[in-house]
């Protein structure tokens, strides 16, 4: 009989009455509970609780979760009875007598005051973001409710955003940098940062662009004095695409072209409305504009996730997120990096320009007028003439190489080849007696390589038999084959090492050079640092130079550290606490983990864009391609950053070897693998009283410090190499999860 009673109780509990969504949220906020608090107590996902409180389309809990949720709300209602009339009837069975009346219309002043109160109630501890303004605070915002539908007007805000929008926000962009446009129950809505939702009256793409510029108050202030404000970004969901007459996905032909055909009806609508598209047309990242009049810009950028605008390699599942969550992800990225301008690679390059605009306003002339002039420290507004490039610095097929024989392969004495490490060696007998292979990975390695680096700003000057100057950026033809890693200077002292167990610092494959080769300045300077004389045969040097990437590094470093801090990984943790904090950090907030991935991709992609290759377009070797027309096509800067990154890593490896007698087994870019008896980096990294080896590897989240990449058994490494008959298979490539599907070619 008791089983029947239990079944009856469960049936009653499954229909436990609940108050309206607005009241559920009010009670939670009144008690100071976050969505995470409730989700943790009820053992459900945070998004589930958010759905229960959604005013537009609330979801209903079921089963035991419903009974527990109803119990929570009943207790909160006893503690915090409603002091004002609710906006919807409350079920009579719900404990806590409340009077039900018809919803009333709120005035603009009332809505604003209510929003401020909501923001105060919802305030959480702000994330430690070093950037000046962060309108998209890291804590997930609850969706801000709108006044009753009887008071809704086209373009009206539902309310000021609840949460932690930074003070001093530019009133022109008070609704944040971007909005995700979606359609719900026939209504077009724009989800902004901070939980704000706007009604969108536009019935076509031209009207949407016009509304964005006139009413939406979207955008972002410029990052540099002479720069330009960021254009508003509109993200279109699949429902919005259908509403505005656009395809949900591109055809194969359109995907390969990267755009819609010129005859598409939406493009015709834009033409009739006198809007223009940039050369890349209406694709995943479309820019719609009218020519600027004076200082006024009229430009809106569209992002279309279902057209693969958000590459899953860098943005994970962002394109599949609900509108509010996607607005949060992109908003955090925009506030800490910049409003996305395309792929993470494009944005990384645009960030360089935004921080160092090519021109600025001059001082007033005799008539009091200002003129556009070169902005010192920038790359200027004009690209370097392709025929003025040093032949050693350009990739194959460049116009300056058009007179080379068709199948000529340039060697080290003809081509600057500064790339990241891809090196491995067989394990020694002693290493095979150890139990584990432990991989460590340098955080934001290429960003750290850019920090404080002096790079060329203008064209190169050719010099014969120059004296090497480690402070002068350029490319140097020099023979470094005499540098012997068995005896090098570490600091001011000469040390003896086993050079056969170390990669050469001068080649990506770690092979010792056999004669003259072209190197960037940091590589040649390191040969001097190791105690060896260098005598360049010739060089291409840049006398106009500066620390062009410092601001870029600082911006991306701060974005990375602030987001990692939101995920529970702070910069001042002890080595043990740091390793513990890194364990499963992505699961604490998967949306912010996406931001971390995007920030990292912005670093690597931005640097890669400095030497962008031809992208189809009917290009033939010897002809110029589109990227060459950019002032930011600078393969020399890319080479210098990679050179310094590789040298920074080698310096740490040498210091570690000199102090411990341990040598790396494999290196892939910024990941290094050592043999050890334990599974943790602390089992082979030397720490004394919590302090690391000076100049060696140090655990931590800051760029240039290292984290644990992965651990596998020594037997795993030997078995993998034997299975593929590859004694020097690069185990660093597989150390993270141990999965090896096939032998790669290093690409």
Strand-helix topology:
Blueprint: H1 2-13, H2 21-30, H3 35-42, H4 46-52, H5 63-79, H6 108-122, E1 178-184, E2 187-192, E3 197-199, H7 205-214, E4 233-236, H8 238-243, H9 252-257, H10 265-272, E5 276-277, E6 285-293, E7 296-303, H11 312-315, H12 323-336, H13 344-355, E8 359-361, E9 372-374, E10 422-424, H14 429-432, E11 436-442, H15 445-450, E12 455-456, E13 461-464, E14 474-479, E15 487-490, E16 493-496, E17 516-520, H16 521-529, E18 538-541, E19 545-546, H17 550-566, H18 575-582, H19 590-609, H20 635-660, E20 666-668, E21 671-676, E22 687-688, E23 691-692, E24 706-713, H21 714-723
Parallel strand pairs: 1-4, 4-7
Antiparallel strand pairs: 1-2, 2-3, 5-6, 6-7, 8-9, 10-20, 11-21, 11-24, 12-19, 13-18, 14-17, 14-18, 15-16, 20-21, 22-23
Helix pairs in contact: 3-4, 12-19, 13-19, 16-20, 17-19
Task: Give a short overview.
With 747 residues, the chain is an alpha+beta fold. The chain is 31% helix and 14% strand.
Written overview of the protein:
The chain has 747 residues and is an alpha+beta fold. A 7-stranded mixed sheet has the order 3-2-1-4-7-6-5. The protein has a 5-stranded antiparallel sheet with strand order 10-20-21-11-24. A hairpin with a 2-residue loop joins strand 22 (687-688) and strand 23 (691-692). The relative contact order is 0.09.
